[in-house]
Amino acid sequence: xxxxxxxxxxxxxxxxxxxxxxxxxxxxxxxxxxxxxxxxxxxxxxxxxxxxxxxxxxxxxxxxxxxxxxxxxxxxxxxxxxxxxxxxxxxxxxxxxxxxxxxxxxxxxxxxxxxxxxxxxxxxxxxxxxxxxxxxxxxxxxxxxxxxxxxxxxxxxxxxxxxxxxxxxxxxxxxxxxxxxxxxxxxxxxxxxxxxxxxxxxxxxxxxxxxxxxxxxxxxxxxxxxxxxxxxxxxxxxxxxxxxxxxxxxxxxxxxxxxxxxxxxxxxxxxxxxxxxxxxxxxxxxxxxxxxxxxxxxxxxxxxxxxxxxxxxxxxxxxxxxxxxxxxxxxxxxxxxxxxxxxxxxxxxxxxxxxxxxxxxxxxxxxxxxxxxxxxxxxxxxxxxxxxxxxxxxxxxxxxxxxxxxxxxxxxxxxxxxxxxxxxxxxxxxxxxxxxxxxxxxxxxxxxxxxxxxxxxxxxxxxxxxxxxxxxxxxxxxxxxxxxxxxxxx
Length: 490
Prior knowledge:
- The chain is of the alpha+beta class.
- The chain has three domains: about 35-145; about 150-390, D-amino Acid Aminotransferase, Chain A, domain 1; about 390-485, no CATH class.
- The protein contains twelve helices and 23 strands.
- The strands form five sheets. Strands 11, 12, 13, 14, 15, 18, 19, 20, 21, 22 and 23 form an eleven-stranded antiparallel sheet that branches. It has a four-stranded parallel sheet with strand order 3-2-1-4, with helices on both faces.
């Protein structure tokens, strides 16, 4: 008897791929068609980020590349990537670093523009900017996948309230108060305070703020009075109760109306300096697992937010829904209509180059990947996020070293505190819990902790990170405040 003819495992969009590997091969091929063999300028706030992106475009897609960085950060540079480094001085805030980098990349110094034009005399290259950059043109060329101003506006912690309401999300009581109304701010604090106080978030009048900047922990009336005196950069302030629990974020992707993907929750390692009543942002981990019920609720909430963003402003691309998993469930606090830091960017594939979510995101925004099936992509990415856990920490510290320092955290004997070991020569990489770099970052002195190993799956990562940070501070005296991790209570 004749056998049935083989059944194709794909159509033009990859929607009917029957295995994750086959879908992955389709996605790799589509990205190769978009990025391959073309001239690209990778522009970023931090030079190391620009060079890393350019190197990936060169290696994965055989593209002609130029990297342009606004200011140096920490870490190595690929010496074979052509580079224009504008070398802005460091800023004292993340917001200042973003804004000054944006301005320098939109209108670079004349010597930098001449170098860029010499590399691309025909003006054929397009610019791929970092997730926080928002201009439709940079370096005298069009941006690939630019963020529209209507999208950027919704990142404002005050304006986003209407999106949360339209998505039908349960939120704790909150009030929007004029920043100059000191009596009104104090009264709102007294009405809304939990046992730990309130959290105040300013608007974006002076530019985008993230990484814990613009968000203030107000514990009591004295804090409220002092904080009200320091709100000169805002017009309005959102006041809400301090919610105890795990700070977390969930990403979604909008390909078009009714074409929404939502991924898995990630832990935001937002630490606390109780002595100064402030939050210390330390990036993110995917090792943490909320309960299946809480995870499903967060995925559903992100999907509804994506639908609102698509309908209201025609949004496309990645976005984040951030909040706290508290005693009564997930409490949303903000939406960032852009790719955030919580989701790992790099994902190895079985038969091709790694897939970088930043490049998927830019292609979706620009319309070059309009054939992406969000459900298939969601299944592919969530599977990888669940099977391959990652954590990276970047934290602003008080002191900068005279020269960049590197080390490895090594586990102590019999479960004792870890120790920091500095390499003494090339190739000296002891078995370690993590690699550590301390240097001058774009927004101040910073520690970067990568290659974090040995972390359990399930509980939050932040308590372990606090132990590691104390070991680093004990060895290097980086000026770490007396930090603590958030308490999981659900």
